[in-house]
């Protein structure tokens, strides 16, 4: 019985690629140095999978930034502003598209489906001259072959590539991106021909958009694309991989009738209903790559249950046609549990990271073939039973408090207009008030202080002294820049979710459980294994300390319950909304303690609210109801004069704008600059928004420093659709990933732009 892995984490067990990328970007190392680190990581991954007994090992899932950007490079679809003149795309052009450069901004970045991974959105139009401009897929296949590992090269499928794209600036929004299929398929044919010539016997096309709500025209595009590729694909085994949700009956029919396709990869973890479609009608003689091992969470697989599912599927598709696989790429999990030295043995026994999932896949394949490892299965069953019965998982008081939430919508008693009036009397802010989103640059010295405190190398007194000094530096800088509403810079926090999780019960933490978010940015999601509560205040000391250093309003900075949920590895033994309500109650306690401590502006970030939106429209309403309710629970008890902010970053917000309004925050700051001000189109189309709003005026994920004029131009575009008295001026997101040399001039220009507009508005009266 064969086994397959959809994809694997790229960063390395100790984030080796992250550090190599940042060293290269900082001009501290060469392209050759970066390429060597990457080659060593790829070699290690391929050999590890081969040693574990995996038959179908993927190649071309490694990326220096993002797999969609790799596809853009392969197709030569470089926007003209990057000055690319043809030929093989090198690092300069590639990283300029991803990160921008001194003269031009980066391409838009948005969330990959409903994950916390981000991709670079292709910008396409009728005039794009596609050409085969990156031979990465072939190069990596040959690289693996030279190591003695035969792999399945993986490509983003042509239809999903177009459906994930957007019309370039200046192109009509109604432009049909699928009309470009005839232009990109010749490039795909070139790549396929080269892979065949190099000796590939299988090829994997990732077509994850098949799980979305697609109309008949979009489904027909898949049929047309693979019919066109059929001749070129002749002689190859072709796997179409889907993931993250069920397929509709129409999509399943389209998929299983595609020309020239040998195998179908299906997510049977998040797509359990797809199993019924398989049982009712699976094409004779085709392979099923059954994704029964969860690629998006870190819980050990219930091997007995998965084996039972596989045995039922084997009876449908045939013994020699069933391949055991992961539900999606393991990119979304941590790398290796072996590196976790501080997790206690009980919790560790409940977990499986990417390396362990590879072993699980192979163990299931062998068991299906009659070579069951009884000891491995027995240990797994014991761990499953331990997790179900462990007293540390359940807290009756928390469950009772969460159950008592039913029956109220937890809205603040006064409407937002009246609250804003009361807040303005107290805060006395100017028109177009300026603020930042929360974090300030995390310097090497700051990271050293936190690291040494965690390792007990410095005393708590020394740690507190160092953090207070950093806060004072950030407060003084903001006052010098004349920012209106200040933040303390979050020097005590390495990560916005991890920081809170460490102080809440029901969470566990890893040392090296890093997961790629975008580019070199990695996050270390906490593990929610049990009921959640707040034993004691988490931020009150630092916020009060910061407020004592200034007469200006100081924001209390919290992470909201939905974001903590969506950016954690969440327990899978109860509905997600139940866990979210528990977190909401813990944050509510913190909000009320901040208010008692004299903090008049409290920001509750819900950066990931849109990210958790289910992929199917039929499931949207239920998610939005409990997610928005969770946010309202956190602040329903504060006074009218306490201003509640929230923040959302990179996502498509337009389809949840009414839920955003329903959150009933006093002020929302939101990403805007990198998505071509897509957000503003909602307001142009007539949506009325009465609360304060700060669409980001510059992109903090790029090192580029915007001019005062550029920012003023952005503010003017906002003023064309938003009332002057509700508009705030702020960056897109927190500043932790930037350097002070970038932050100071950018914020200075931002404040100058706000003042320029205030003067113009005053003189126009």
How would you describe the overall organization of this protein?
Helix content is 42%, strand content 12%. With 765 residues, the protein is of the alpha/beta class. The protein has 2 domains: 388 residues, TIM Barrel; 319 residues, TIM Barrel. Strands 1-12-11-10-9-8-6-2 form an 8-stranded parallel beta sheet. It has a 5-stranded parallel beta sheet with strand order 17-19-20-21-22. The longest helix has 25 residues. Its EC number is 2.1.1.14. It comes from Gossypium arboreum (Tree cotton).
SSE layout and pairings?
Elements: E1 2-4, H1 16-25, H2 31-51, E2 57-59, H3 67-74, H4 91-99, E3 109-111, E4 118-120, E5 123-124, H5 136-146, E6 151-156, H6 158-163, E7 166-167, H7 181-198, E8 202-206, H8 216-233, E9 237-241, H9 249-256, E10 263-267, H10 274-280, E11 287-293, H11 303-317, E12 322-326, H12 345-349, H13 354-368, H14 374-389, H15 396-403, H16 416-427, H17 444-454, H18 460-481, H19 496-501, E13 505-508, E14 515-518, E15 521-523, E16 527-533, H20 540-547, E17 555-559, H21 561-566, E18 569-570, H22 576-596, E19 601-605, H23 620-635, E20 643-648, H24 657-662, E21 667-670, H25 680-684, E22 692-695, H26 708-719, H27 740-764
Parallel strand pairs: 1-12, 2-6, 5-7, 6-8, 8-9, 9-10, 10-11, 11-12, 16-18, 17-19, 19-20, 20-21, 21-22
Antiparallel strand pairs: 3-4, 13-16, 14-15
